Amino acid sequence: MSLLELSGVEKRFGGIAAIQGVSFRVEPKQIFGLIGPNGAGKTTLFNVVTGVYRPEAGRVTFDGRDVTGKNPAAIAEAGLGRTFQNIRLFRAMSVEQNVMVAGQHLHRSGLFDALLRTRRFADDENRLRRRAHELLELMGLRELSAELAQSLPYGSQRRLEIARALMLEPQLLLLDEPAAGMNSQEARDLERQLRFLRDQLGLSLILVEHNVSLVMSVCDHIHVVDRGRTIAEGVPDEIKTHPRVLSAYLGEDSGDSGETER
Amino acid sequence: MLDSTPTEPSLASSAELPPSSTPPSSPPPNEPGPREPRPTLRLLVSAGLVVILWGLGFLIESQLIEYVQRILLLCGVNIVLAVGLNLINGTTGQFSIGHAGFMAVGAYTAAYLGVHLAPALEAALGAGVGTDALVLNLALLGGALLAGFAGLLIGMPSLRLRGDYLAVVTLGFGEIIRILFTNAEFLGSATGYFGDSLAGLRAYSSFFWVYLWVLLVVVGIRNLTFSQTGRSLVAIREDEIAAESIAAPSTRLKVQAFVISAATAGIAGGLFAHMQAGIRPEDFRFEKSIDMLVMIIVGGLGSISGAIIGGVFVAVTLELMRDLAQYRLVVYALLLIIVMIGRPKGLLGSRELSELWRRAPGKTPEPVRGGKS
After folding, report:
1. A53 touching B, CB under 8 A?
2. Long-range contact list for B134-138, CB < 8 A, 24+ apart?
3. A105 touches chain B (CB under 8 A)
4. What's the pLDDT tens digit per position in A145-159?
5. How far is the C-alpha of A177 from the C-alpha of A212, rounded, in Å?
């Protein structure tokens, strides 16, 4: 069974059809690349999947359950983590706290435990902190755990977003341009980290990314959209030579695909 | 999580971490974890505090003139108000500018309950210190409950939305409540409520009780703020969309914080009502809400110690400027402008006093919870 399935998803903003009947499946333990020129609707698709937008038509099924139109918190709780294209960290919180805050499901104590500072509360806090440090270690951020999130360099902020999403213990992680703003060394590290997530943690990933070499080397399957429609789908080698992909990217029809991303 | 997780990812087996450009950290930063709870010690400390408060109250009531006593009590009421308001305005970042309304609900409820419970309880238990304490605390709890309920009614619709709707709604609420009380015959209308029995509204709020409630509220809100719930509230303030992406139920959390904040204002109102022999609707005008905002802004939004300092600051300055009459507000505004120029984030910013204490070299600071600039 597919982990995530989109069928015939459509999303309009006023008169603009941002997504027009896109369907795809993401399998367990798959790195799924979602690419396309600027303005193709990739981020809109992310927002539909994560419940930020409600689609006008179509269905989103996650792990066998229909999650179309559910609210973002419910979808996150179902096991779907995400990062944002324009980094959204809790800037005034420390790195460690940024991760810990996503560990709600590891918390067993209630309000009264917190008010009375019971042993259960202390155990919860320690478990959360340990787990957060494991994830920070994984993303190479451990020594920064006491820093404020806003003081981190750009690449580290992106990795922190991933660590925070991992704290949810998701089955599927949606990464919106994780390599943006990273230098080539950082991008190579990221590639290793993504493989680790798939191979060791058994996660599926959906990757929106403009770094073509990263996408081609790390993705198991690639889905190409342009102007809200699917134009190609397949393994990286097929995509590299696909005529419609080439024309969309290189603009053989001299189209005006240079609109800004939503 | 889902009920069926086929491949439960476990990091326990992550001995082989992927190589990373940053070398593995040297010693892990030793963040101070929550201390092991020691129930007996805690009980002893609490009992000690109660005894100290009792002694202090006795000393103050026998040694200080009434005027100074009154200011001390006002400081206590203000601390409760400020710490409660800070939870929603500072920590959660949702602006309420009509908190005087919740204070009024608490004050009138507590006053009414105080007047009507006293004879009944005295008939049943006999008059005495114990009965007085029971009346006061039942009245306070009643006030907190009703104020909290009002908070729920106001918060549920207006906190579903992102943005400044709460400010507009609470502004209106504060005025509506005041006008309701101005026109409520059984609560004394515009002249105020002084109790309708012979005994009248009694001044139960002694130093001991006011500061016991100050302690309860401050410790309670501190413990709440430095917990998973508090972290989620700060996360909502920092970025609500991101908070939802990590499964924080933002509406529910915001409403919870708002209800707690309103109930706290209700307690402050109850203490205030029982400090003097009567309350009037104009005690809870819009300026009162502004005073409360001044308390938390001067002290530093998002800081509990800042709210305490701000509460005391406002009580003392208002009292010192009493002779200025209506020019008080002008001086007040000037003071605020000076503070904002000198320390734009308030006296403490969003830090706690304990963090400043702890900033000795070689120690990692407590996780800073930051404030909205």
Report:
1. no
2. B135/B204, B136/B204, B136/B205, B136/B209, B136/B274, B137/B209, B138/B113
3. yes
4. 999 999 999 889 999
5. 11
In the structure, what pLDDT confidence band is assigned to residue B363 with cuts at 50, 70 and 90?
very low
Q: How close, in Å, is residue B110 to chain A by CA atoms?
A: 25
Of the candidates B135, B294, B152, the residue with the CA atom closest to the CA atom of residue B205: B135
* Chain B residue at shortest CA distance from A74: B247
CB contact under 8 A, A97 and B231: yes
Q: Which of A179-183, B94-98, B303-307 has the lowest mean pLDDT?
A: A179-183
**B34:A94 CB<8 A:** no
Report whether A210 contacts A37 (CB < 8 A). no
pLDDT of residue B234: 94
ipTM: 0.88
B26 pLDDT higher than 90:
no
Per residue in B295-307, pLDDT (tens digit) is 998 888 888 999 9
What band does B8 get if pLDDT is binned at 50, 70 and 90? very low
Q: Is the pLDDT of residue B36 over 70?
A: no
Chain B residues with CB under 8 Å of A200 CB are: 13-14, 16
State how far the Cα of A72 lies from the Cα of A169, in Å rounded to an integer.
16
Who contacts A21 (Cβ-Cβ below 8 Å, separation ≥6)? Answer: A8, A9, A10, A57, A58, A229, A230
**Interface contacts (A, B; CB < 8 Å):** 200
Contacts of A160 in chain B (CB under 8 A): none
Given CB atoms, is B341 within the 8 Å cutoff of chain A?
no
User: A262 is written with which tokens?
Assistant: 């939503």
Q: Chain B within 8 Å of A72 (Cβ-Cβ)?
A: yes
Q: Does B225 touch chain A (CB under 8 A)?
A: no
Q: Are strands A172-176 and A204-208 parallel, antiparallel or unpaired?
A: parallel
Label residue A14 left, alpha or beta by phi (over 0 means left) and psi (-120 to 50 means alpha). left
Question: Which chain B residues have a beta carbon less than 8 Å from that of A140?
Answer: 20-22
End-to-end CA distance of chain A: 31
Interval B350-361 mean pLDDT: 68
pLDDT of residue B364: 44
